[in-house]
């Protein structure tokens, strides 16, 4: 690998960028960074400049001589890159608002990663990630692609299986949260790493087991402490900022025998999650809307020419740890550090219940040649079946998203258990396609036909 | 195998019995029947006598000297049996009414085979089938067990995997319906068998492919004729008497690439099915209630000492072809006839997407040593995932039903996509357990605890 | 499918052709043959004319108006064909003599189907079968390819996986022999078909289980009758004309629990087989040499302008039943007859121990759309491992044969248990490559290099 | 886990014990050892005392207060043990001499781990390991069993699958050798650990891949350096003390694409290995005979009351690193150190080509709860098939060894590619059974029958 590094961040105008910069600064001794390129698109130009200037201030304050480039020219940025990170959001937060509010309009949870919203986000993102890879093949054929654009699992699967970019790693911040909270709940200091965690599943749909340093399996004890309504911890500790802390069904989780992730709430306590989201829908306080407000405030802060460090408020944003994970991943690959991380990577039999060539999210040792996952094996039936169903949904979404295949899109909506199958699902899909028409080149003909047939999307209705 | 046959029917007092008797009479040259035992329980005594007397009249009319035994003594019946067929319904039709109406009370489809109702029916049936097998081990260790008690797939899996009775075959009448309608839709005479059908999946959750006699795959054409809203056949032909003819989503079925079975409507067009069922709930015209009325009328007919043939009205009952299938299965085993039938049998890799040792419903050649399934292989992702999830639900139901495991029961409710996960699912499960307390010895302690905690079931509320 | 049939036989000058013609004549009511094309190459012209004239006499005698074409123009023959059968032998019998004698020269069994000889035969045949398929894609894109050129399994796998010709079926006569002998040994009339046979494995490396018409598994009884040295049948009944009747090791076969095929002798009693073959080597009575003599005699007979029927002597030739199998296969596909046959076809999970997409030889129902295999599942470890190893050898042979890959060829020799690994294996491979240089275009560069390095082949030494 | 440790070594009288003691002394800060029990049997009493006294001197010299117990009372030793290591050899080195020489007498490689010798060693060891486990269940139900008695893979599989002792880990010293030599060959310092090694396969039958710290896959380069006859390293570096350095076939290893282990020579260059071994047979210099002499000399050294450190000569013994591996494994489990080691452990899908529940030898992170293997996935066909065959042989050996099943034993001999199938294999098996009659209680009846039939073993003939 290169002696010095060129790192490129696509979607560099994101409010997360300061965390990323902070992460790189913290690892300045491990990462001989020469150039940092923050890339964005025309619509993101203003944000890019604000956050980019702040990044420069942070780097300067750290006494580092890194070249920070702010650009709209993706190809210039990619040229000879060593690492490319992706944190872009096609359609910006307004698209996320639609992803969440349109399903709620029809009484369904949107879920921007694996509900109807997430499927639509995949449709918007797939053409872009494939186009980035086309550029990378030409401009930086040896670079690593570190993806944390959601739905991270499906986008990583698209990059590897469709785009053929084997050196892609998908990242997620969810496991970091549960890793910390599990230590706390079992009485370890907050920054302890004594417990051995093993995660497996899909992005935003994984489970984990935990052992203590004596080799005892403490999974059951954790289930009891976290989810038994009689536990002193019940409802007090949460693994995630951006998901409601609604309690899981204790008996059901006990039967699982593995610890769920926060996103399992959408599937395991659908009723309660939907009820709360409908409340948010009414009050215009869906997660997307809250985040949009937070972001606005953050950018106001970032504008301050005196601000040269990551502000406290960013942690409220929800995606905290994402950038930390990205920086650690890059440092671990570059230095063959063999850190244990949870990443989206090729299955190759790690989870025997899933197709050999699909992408899974699993605990892995990060080496100089990428992730080496710990073998997981097979799940109990009760986790196995729903996992397999989610993977089949992902595969169908990718098929639809790559080919602009309406039949597959409707099929994916039908499979997804938080989308109610039937005519309303079709109505929702149609309206979402029309609402996203600017971002779905692959569905162009279909969308034209839908509009002809009278399908409309009226932002005012939302 | 024996030179002459002793056949035992458990649940002999069923309204279906005349169809069974007719089936045996039609195969009198293939089946050297010596004794036919119709077994029932105390509560079914009256029906047993009515239908048993009619059976005797039918046999007499056919000029046959078979011994027809009507008995409540199951062990006497099982002694030295060659074939045992099971068509009993624990809790009678009143239990089915609860299976269907209780979920609807909470806004969910009951579905007496793979919804909340079906899971409860499994819980009631599992202890009985295991007890029958205990008797068989002692009294007729070489007999074949032909199960058509629903949920036929789960009961067959219980019999084989838990009970260890390898010589069990599960039967379903659904495929016979689609076999006939596919011929009609493609312009063949109604009784033609020119098309080659291959079915695979689970009981009430299978798909099929069809080829014509020239070797052309006509599956896509059938999908188009049956489900394209522009087809002349749309909504005109139905594979099942007891399921609404609501149209499938054409594009979604096209994407499947295989023909669904009628029961897939509960999963593929859940919204419409639920809407209709809620209407029935209001009008007290759920399927169970309609069947109860039909049965009452049938038994009035059966009482007629002049009636010595299967009355026309029985076909209305819905389960038509079941008994025909049972008789043909028995004849095919006894005579090594090698008829092609769709049966629930051991997977052993027939469907590679499912556990090796589970029970699947697949097209099989019925030989003297039982079913030899045609290999199926793997499904496309969109059918694969939901199939795997249903199997995981079945396995969890069986675990719960065998051990009286409440955690597993709640888990099964959580997995099932037509049960909305969350607090109401728990409420429903609890109420159903209490409502079925007379039939769930394995859940005795749990139910007592629930009652103590104030869970009640008031038949009047239904 | 066509109303009338054009059938093409590549390698039409074979001594087997009369059996094929007889087979077609016997099925004249099932097969509306219009044209029969016998194709051969320049070197086979004389034989083609002799056997072709005889074929014409046979057809004429049968009073049929089929057009018999004798041609060296393969493309003219393939044009609009409905069925193409392949029975060619690249390099003629002299190549087979080398396949058998060269390994023996180095103290190893040649085995023209799955020993060193068979691997070399595959190398010679692969370029030809792929070239036939190229022509078929252009000239008869809907034709079925019925392959009985050995090694039939590997050639079928090449045709389907490399050539992409899905409508290929591989045939073998071995199962017909054991089917007949098993009936005889259990006391059935010679032409009985009462027993249900299920075969699975690879071409010339399959096992089978047998049930009688009462459903009893009689496999163990057959093992005892055939292979127990104390049995009255021991050594008396043989399934194959062309393999020595050396007795299997009774205890070892008992442990298998399935019936081996004749070719398993090369692997299960290697010592005795080798000893006998070395004797033949010394006496110039290897199978290939015997067959060459038989063929010479057969062609003398065929020249007789009075001969218009298949002569008795052909059955001595060893490959009897091959052509019968081919004709029955064609009739079964054309008429959707659903005959049960043992064919080489796509695995798709039929044998779960082997790769999903490989070719296996299994009992199948032959339908209008080709073979529908009975599911087999998994073997006991003792059969499973050696089967998996043979498949890996086949895959490596195909890789070597398609790409002219020397490393893979040496690897295949190393894997094969009847080739002793080490320097002599390399010497043998090198000499065989040089000896076959006229037939191995894909290995051209390698062979040139070997010759340069001093590797020679002197036919006189053989 | 306990605050202080009781460690038990079965076969404590082994010449390796000083290495083990040294290993514990080196880890005195990691392992709070309280008691060390060296257990042996009556025949090993003298050696136990010699080596035991020396162990005491070593511990004393290190200034440690560990209690060293020398005992023939296995049950007393096992009581409350924390770790049990097994390094016993049933029948002592004389049995190994028979394991190696008897096959050579019949012209076959003996191979004391996976040839005929290894199978016989498994038969002798299986009853003992199962009896140790029976004691452990009663006396130390929480102990870890660290097995390095050969054939380590089969014995570990027996312990886990048959004995049900999940906390068993099998050890091998082979990977340590190749780890070191690979570093040297690529120009790293001898004690470097920069390269990332990933091993997978079975004990004495595994392959590995290697990456450097830049993430480059250097496997191909290593194959070239080690096995290309033109390489400067060719034949100069060897991974093993006790296996001849005969060169692999370069092209064949290139095709493998993974690095073989030393024992693969028996399978990949059988001819040369056999030739050399036959030479040794003639000269009475088989490995077993050499080792016996070395051991004799070692014990002479050990008797010296002044010797209180591991003598240089022990490294010549061949099994070097074994004890080091054992000590490191124990330290890693006790301290949850997460060292990467190559161990025999449960597959659970790590190698997808092998049965889920079998034992494999794979690179693993050693945690407080035991090995967590890195996922491997699937091998290329050329490694896959022979691996699957070896596993099937192991399973058949275990079946034979557990049940004293002669049919299975003969089957295992038939499967093994370095045993020539046929009558001589049977003769060899019979003679080996008789020669080992004192150590094969499970085969008692069979052996009696063989003796009656005239099978003899005359030590003088050897």
TrEMBL record, chains A, B, C, D:
<keyword id="KW-0170">Cobalt</keyword>
<feature type="binding site">
    <location>
        <position position="96"/>
    </location>
    <ligand>
        <name>substrate</name>
    </ligand>
</feature>
<keyword id="KW-0326">Glycosidase</keyword>
<dbReference type="InterPro" id="IPR022616">
    <property type="entry name" value="Glyco_hydro_4_C"/>
</dbReference>
<dbReference type="Pfam" id="PF02056">
    <property type="entry name" value="Glyco_hydro_4"/>
</dbReference>
<feature type="binding site">
    <location>
        <position position="172"/>
    </location>
    <ligand>
        <name>Mn(2+)</name>
    </ligand>
</feature>
<keyword id="KW-0408">Iron</keyword>
<feature type="site" description="Increases basicity of active site Tyr">
    <location>
        <position position="112"/>
    </location>
</feature>
<dbReference type="Pfam" id="PF11975">
    <property type="entry name" value="Glyco_hydro_4C"/>
</dbReference>
<dbReference type="InterPro" id="IPR001088">
    <property type="entry name" value="Glyco_hydro_4"/>
</dbReference>
<dbReference type="GO" id="GO:0005975">
    <property type="term" value="P:carbohydrate metabolic process"/>
</dbReference>
<comment type="similarity">
    <text>Belongs to the glycosyl hydrolase 4 family.</text>
</comment>
<feature type="binding site">
    <location>
        <position position="150"/>
    </location>
    <ligand>
        <name>substrate</name>
    </ligand>
</feature>
<dbReference type="GO" id="GO:0046872">
    <property type="term" value="F:metal ion binding"/>
</dbReference>
<keyword id="KW-0479">Metal-binding</keyword>
<protein>
    <submittedName>
        <fullName>6-phospho-beta-glucosidase</fullName>
    </submittedName>
</protein>
<keyword id="KW-0533">Nickel</keyword>
<dbReference type="InterPro" id="IPR019802">
    <property type="entry name" value="GlycHydrolase_4_CS"/>
</dbReference>
<dbReference type="GO" id="GO:0004553">
    <property type="term" value="F:hydrolase activity, hydrolyzing O-glycosyl compounds"/>
</dbReference>
<dbReference type="GO" id="GO:0016616">
    <property type="term" value="F:oxidoreductase activity, acting on the CH-OH group of donors, NAD or NADP as acceptor"/>
</dbReference>
<keyword id="KW-0378">Hydrolase</keyword>
<keyword id="KW-0520">NAD</keyword>
<dbReference type="InterPro" id="IPR015955">
    <property type="entry name" value="Lactate_DH/Glyco_Ohase_4_C"/>
</dbReference>
<feature type="domain" description="Glycosyl hydrolase family 4 C-terminal">
    <location>
        <begin position="199"/>
        <end position="419"/>
    </location>
</feature>
<keyword id="KW-0464">Manganese</keyword>
<feature type="binding site">
    <location>
        <position position="204"/>
    </location>
    <ligand>
        <name>Mn(2+)</name>
    </ligand>
</feature>
<dbReference type="InterPro" id="IPR036291">
    <property type="entry name" value="NAD(P)-bd_dom_sf"/>
</dbReference>
